[in-house]
Design brief:
The protein has 16 helices and 16 strands. It has 419 residues and is α+β, with helices and mostly antiparallel strands. It folds into two domains: 250 residues, BirA Bifunctional Protein, domain 2 (2-Layer Sandwich); 86 residues, Anticodon-binding domain (Rossmann fold). An eight-stranded mixed beta sheet has the order 1-5-6-11-10-9-7-8. The longest helix is centred in the N-terminal third of the chain and has 17 residues. It starts with 15 loop residues before the first helix and ends with a helix. The relative contact order is 0.12. Bound molecules: zinc ion (2 copies). One zinc ion binds next to helix 10.
Length: 419
């Protein structure tokens, strides 16, 4: 039997109510904040991610699907969307076309991770990116939007907004040296990955999942204590605006994010309910990304929401079911079909969910099928009904049965009476 590729998963129709709710709530919320949808390709040039995300990050070093196409070009399946949206922003000169540049995107990402740890190699993210504004109230607004999304999905009790500030080009290098000095003293105890990170990307050691590294990180010097005055003020104002927005948060000095492009504000929406995969959403400010990718000097901030993890939390809190048919048309034969098909089509055009039996089966077995499908009404068209030009309608809940003219209006009235 042929099976799906490891780490790639089908989303079946019975799961879709959660995905639809997530998509609908996100879309209407993001649009109320003035974000516009953008769609980007699945494939990009490898160079985009090397330059955008950073060549020493785990994603670029180990996790990307990279291949050479027939023209000899090195391509990568996108492992995240921020660099792609930034690329689109630069390519189309969107900064010149629009006064506000706020975008959202929903789609699959690809990372070659270990499936045994419950990680998917194709997973889905909701992305939000705002270009052109650098202000503490903007940062707070972006986080407020994320928190509101959690509230709209009824998972706010499962998550906590953790925030940190990772400094600027002025104060981060100083902190980096202080951190390296501290970590160098404990080098022997660090895990293999972190030993390597020490020189190249020491901040990443702060969010290593290894237990010993975690302990070392806990006692490490904190960036908060080494921020320059400007960064400190920016961070304090951001926290103040978060309170104005009535968003609960905790400061977590260990949040550094795994991507090179972050500057200043970084945040995560974390949960303790999904084992080791504790980040449901993550984001931050990236004021140099656009320029580093060859665009104008434009700041930015954004976040990504992990759709599978969000759906897992939603599942624990609510039971959503697929929509059931309103009418099931049980038809005796071809003549009965010809009699009722025009009505069925008209009702469907009015967005009323109808099923009609196509195979030749007894009315009794069709009734069983209607029951199984959870139809509200079964509409029977048998010999008697055809003679009278009427149909017999059975309310499947109270078993009440009556005859009526099969006009579209009559069916619509039933829908109204029993929404
Ligand atoms: Zn600074
Ligand atoms: Zn480590």
């Amino acid at each position: 039997m042929l099976k799906a590729v490891r780490g790639f998963k089908d989303v079946l129709p019975e799961d879709m109510p959660y995905w639809h709710l997530l998509g609908e709530e996100a879309r209407s919320l993001f649009e109320s904040y003035g974000y516009r949808e953008i769609r980007i390709p699945v494939l990009e040039k490898l160079e985009l991610f090397q330059r955008g995300i950073g060549s020493t990050t785990d994603i670029v070093e180990k996790e990307m699907y990279v291949f050479e196409d027939k023209g000899g070009e090195l391509l990568a399946l996108r492992p995240e969307a921020t660099a792609c949206i930034a690329r689109a922003f630069i390519e189309h000169r969107l900064d010149l076309k629009h006064t506000t540049n706020k975008y959202y995107f929903f789609g699959p990402m690809f990372r070659h991770e270990r499936p045994q740890a419950g990680r998917l190699r194709q997973f889905h993210q909701l992305n939000v990116e705002a270009f052109g504004v650098r202000s503490p109230s903007m940062d707070a607004e972006v986080m407020a939007m994320l928190y509101t999304l959690a509230r709209k999905l009824h998972i706010e009790d499962a998550v906590s907004l953790e925030i940190n500030h990772i400094g600027c080009a002025k104060c981060r290098p100083i902190y980096r040296e202080i951190l390296i000095n501290y970590l160098a003293g404990q080098k022997d105890k660090l895990c293999k990955d972190c030993k390597r990170r020490l020189e190249r990307n020491p901040l990443r050691i702060l969010d290593c999942k290894n237990e010993t590294c975690k302990e070392i990180a806990l006692n490490a010097p904190r960036i908060m204590d080494h921020l320059c005055d400007e960064c400190r003020r920016y961070f304090e104002e951001t926290l103040d605006f978060l309170s104005v927005c009535d968003v609960p948060f905790v400061i977590n000095p260990l949040i550094v994010r795994g991507l090179d492009y972050y500057t200043g504000t970084v945040f995560e929406l974390t949960t303790t309910e999904l084992g080791a995969q504790n980040a449901v959403a993550a984001g931050g400010r990236y004021d140099n990304l656009i320029e580093e990718l060859g665009g104008p000097s434009v700041p930015g901030i954004g976040f990504a929401v992990g759709a599978e993890r969000t759906v897992a939390l939603m599942r624990k809190r609510m039971k959503l079911e697929e929509k059931k048919p309103t009418f099931f048309f049980a038809v005796l034969d071809a003549e009965a079909k010809r009699f009722i098909i025009p009505v069925v089509l008209s009702l469907r055009e009015k967005k009323i969910r109808c099923e009609m039996e196509h195979e030749e089966k007894s009315l009794k077995s069709q009734m069983r099928k209607a029951n199984k499908l959870g139809a509200k009404y079964t509409v029977m068209v048998g010999e008697d009904e055809l003679k009278k030009g009427k149909v017999t309608v059975r309310n499947m809940k109270d078993k009440n049965q009556f005859e009526m003219e099969p006009s579209v209006e009559n069916f619509l009235r039933l829908v109204e009476e029993n929404p």
